[in-house]
Write a structure and sequence with these properties.
Helix content is 67%, strand content 5%. It has 12 helices and 7 strands. Helix 4 packs across helix 6, helix 10 packs antiparallel against helix 11 and helix 11 runs antiparallel to helix 12.
Amino acid sequence: MVLSIRSDRLHLLNRVDTQLPVILKNLYELDALHPDSARQAITEPAAMPKMDWFDSEPFLYDPAAIEHILDFLTLEASEAAKHSDGVTSSHPVTTNALQKVEATQLQIILAEIEKRAKSGRLRIVQVADLGDLGGIIEQYYSNQIFLLDPGEQLPARRFIEEGLVFEEEERRLSIYEGQIFKTYKIQPDTLRKLVDAHLLRAEPSLSGGYTYELSHDTLVAPVLKAKKARLEEERREEEERLARLREEELEQARSEALEEKNRRKRAAFLAWMAGLFAVVAFAAAIFALQKTRTAQKATREAETALRQALQEKIQRYELEINTSRRKIETYEKAKEPELVELETAQMKLRSAQRDSAKVRIQQIDDNAGQ
């Protein structure tokens, strides 16, 4: 019997040592790959003939390309060893410690190279064909997210970037599936896709169900980088949305102000014409009064018409004054002092015209009483 178990769960095997007393007798820690094993992992699968489980034709690696890959991965391991826990060691790291190759990183890089070999019909992969190996690891997370349906991508990113990484310590976190469904609105099918893409790892929970976490520490840095870019993009989009909204509101206010200004001009012209006609009518009535009794009757009719016209003007001025008050309140809320000043001046003008019309009506009434 062969059991595979994570090192942090190894203690759980003690629960069955009564039934299987020798379960902990033979233990083997599956460590990172030795360079020779890594070379085999690079060259042998690539050279195998195309069969049902291979998606590309066989290809080879130039020895310099193999060493370039190993140099990159062992350098990554060297940096991790020297700066573990954020502290640089004062003791030299042994050659054996630095020569281990992380299988997860190697798998990500080789999968991308296989795609390039297939699309470019490569038979021998040269160093120039490798490109930026660090970029391949960084882009792996974004590429896998892009393969999801468009409606799944943003919820998946928020779940991974905000829920599965403790940013302050760049540490992976695990979350129970029930909390995932409730908090991040992730569907079970989306979780399955993320696990199949090797972004997430599902672990049975002792109380039932599953917990989920990033599949490897290698993904923490790309996830945090993608999170920073996403938050910056969301901030920029929100600022642009608010700017567009403010511009639309100001443009609407300007349009309404211009329309109101033109309407007032037309009303002022009509009022001037009405006043002119009223003056002419009143003069004609005075002249008629001096001539004959018929002229007196015509004068009274003219005064009645003038009074009615003035009353209609007063009603119109009242409506315009009320409209101006509402406009002033709107412009004050929009913080448009120029529009407020213009509207206030127009309201004062209409108030003066209204009062003048009232005085004129009073004069007409006084004349009629004499």
